[in-house]
Amino acid sequence: MNRRGVSGARGVGGASAGRVALLVRLCVLGMVAGVLAGMTLGALVLAVKKAPGGPVRGEDPGCGEGPVPGAGAGTTEPGPDALAVARQLVAARDAVLSAGDTAALSALSVPEGEAAAADATLGSVLDSTPVAQVETEVREASWVGEDLLEVVTVQRRLVLSGGQTMGPQPERCARWQLSPQPWRIVAVRPCS
Asked: Where is this region: Disordered (predicted)?
């Protein structure tokens, strides 16, 4: 499977194809997962702030002797569960994209970070090409550094307010640099 899939717009012609392609690229910025049923935006943002504990250092061979992600430096306290953190962040992102709430979108990234700049661009695109629904899935997530999360995602569906629907996009892998308490995105890069 291709973990670095780049999505494109299909079935949308004319001058709007470029905007739709940009919108799809920005929406999948490596942060796509299913919207959690029955949760309101407020509950999603609260859930991001309360990420549950996860595996203890040593369970993952990639952890080495370094600090546990999300725990104090040099501690053996359990760190946050990678899959839970990824799903919470992406569910919150999907919810705000579906609601067209660019102010809430900015709360999911660190101000002045690369992700915040990308979200500002996304906000401009959303003004001209509003999204009605985003359905995405986190397939895998693991800590690869103290503040670095590797996440494999698939955008299941993107529906624009005009009715255009884009089906499943290729699976992609991205590395998210995170800031904890609450979890927010600093930068997103393709997996290497």
From this structure: 57-77
Q: What angle do CA 109, 115, 117 make, to 5 degrees?
A: 105
Give the tokens for residue 87. 């799903």
Instruction: Please report the pLDDT score of residue 124 as a whole number.
Output: 86
Q: Which helix (H) or strand (E) holds 114?
A: helix 114-128
Look up residue 31 and give its amino acid.
M
Taking Cα atoms as reference points, which of 51, 47, 125, 122 lies closest to residue 91? 47
CA distance 176 to 90: 11
pLDDT at 2 over 50: no
Sorted by where each starts, the structural domains of the chain and their CATH numbers stand as 23-30+79-191 (3.10.450.50)
Burial class (CB in 10 A: 0-12, 13-18, 19+), 52: exposed
